[in-house]
Amino acid sequence: MLAAAVLGSPIAHSLSPVLHQAAYHALGLTEWDYVRIECTAADLPGIVAGTAPETRGFSVTMPCKDAALRFADVVSTRAHLVESANTLVRHGDGWYADCTDIDGALAALEHVGHTGGDVLLLGAGATARPYLAALQQCGAGHVSIASRSEGRAQPTLHLAAQLGIDYTWVPLTDPVVLQDTCTSADTLISTLPGDAAAGYGHFLRRTPRLVDVVYAPWPTSLAQIVANDGGKVVGGRTMLLHQAVAQIEMFTSMTVTDEVFAAMVAALNAA
Known about the structure:
Residues 6-88 form the Shikimate dehydrogenase substrate binding N-terminal domain. Keywords: Amino-acid biosynthesis, Aromatic amino acid biosynthesis. By secondary structure, the protein is α/β, with parallel strands linked by helices. It is built from 12 helices and 12 strands. Strands 2-1-3-5-6-4 form a 6-stranded mixed sheet, with helices on both faces. Strands 9-8-7-10-11-12 form a 6-stranded parallel sheet, sandwiched between helices. The model has no long low-confidence stretch (mean pLDDT 96). It folds into 2 domains: 2-98 and 241-270, Rossmann fold; 102-234, Rossmann fold. It is globular and about 55 Å long.
């Protein structure tokens, strides 16, 4: 049966089916199917509302996270806070929205060895906001938020202020400022899509640790440059893996044990 699916556009590259199917199999839910569905933000209400009653939920990726938040009947506190939902779960006759991206961001920061120092955050869109929530939980010194437009970054800057984070906005278009900011930062987080950070590698190469949200294609130019210079790099697969855990537990009402998690890791490594 179609138990769940991932919604987004483009969606063919998504590795979510790999993780979910591995987990369902390890949990004994061998009849459960999880598929990719090409879906724009405008398509989401009709697709979700038209699903069969047995469908438990949806993973949601770009460009549908805002649409999922607006569609849901009930929204978690953290999804409301970051104004982004990557998870829809059937909730009685309606739908519940959550943001497990925050779980994924926390795991990525832990894996890269972030211990609370200063951060340079590239990008100020919907993907950046879960990282701010994660930084507020795990600790950070000063957070520099870099984007092309300070005006368009206002929702993210407002969230940083709301979370009590010490932050400044810096222009992504100024290589001198970027290089100086990166030199003083302990952790660099890139939430830029695809290989959009490629042109900044020369200015950011000496960061001691990088979290890059991209997982396909991998490695990105920035990740390769930082790794070549001896920096520690964590890619988007770590975030993807850990955000999926809470989704699976919500969809199945079962616990992702160490054995189930190991099956997910093995499937992801083989993909």
